[in-house]
Amino acid sequence: MEVDKIIKKAPPKSEILPESGKNNNEIITTKEFSWEALEYERNPKEKSWFLIPAIIAIGLGLFGVFTDNYLFTILVILCFFTFYVYANKPPRMIKFKIDVKGIEIDNRQHDYSSLRSFWIFYDPPVEKIISLRSKKTFFPYLRLNLADENPAEIRKFLLKFLPERKHRESIIDIWMRRIGF
Fold first, then answer.
1. Which residues pair with residue 32 across a beta bridge?
2. Structural domain for 170, as ranges
3. Whether residue 122 sits in one domain with residue 54
4. Are the CB atoms for 93 and 117 separated by under 8 Å?
5. pLDDT, tens digit, for every residue of 99-147?
6. pTM above 0.85, yes or no
7. H-assigned helices in the chain
8. Residue of 86, 80, 82 whose CA lies nearest to 55
9. Sheet order of strands, 127-134 included
10. Spatial separation of the C-alpha atoms in residues 9 and 119, rounded to whole Å
11. Residues 72, 51 share a domain
């Protein structure tokens, strides 16, 4: 959903028009983009999808038992359990908002000053994602699902605040998409 806003700038005194007392560039219109999208694209998984990870977990668990490494066996069981729960977890609906103040993701504000650059991965219907590179060391990339938003308009708006630099997709993201995670 787009909402037009008007932001007024105080013009330099030398540029004030004598007849109106206003500047030609005084009123700038900007847009606010806000939408809701799923946290990630859900791929339904059948029970057979878990067969290979289960076989690997059982094999590693048996290896741990035969080598008397019970801590390793417990770790394997916990890893498979976490994998199973995460794979069956339904995605949350997240609210996104982009405006002149920054980017808001689920009521958490990210100022443009805390971001380095952006890139839009656009390959419909497979991928419509904004990648934001943060200045933080841990979790340096934020990914926003565009859902039905127009990426060209969002790109044009973001260029006013952030440089556009090509981001590489992480190997984990590529691998997860290929296996249908």
1. 3
2. 2-41+91-179
3. no
4. no
5. 998 899 888 998 899 998 999 988 877 778 888 998 887 778 888 888 8
6. no
7. 51-66, 70-88, 151-158, 171-179
8. 80
9. 115-123, 127-134, 141-145
10. 29
11. yes
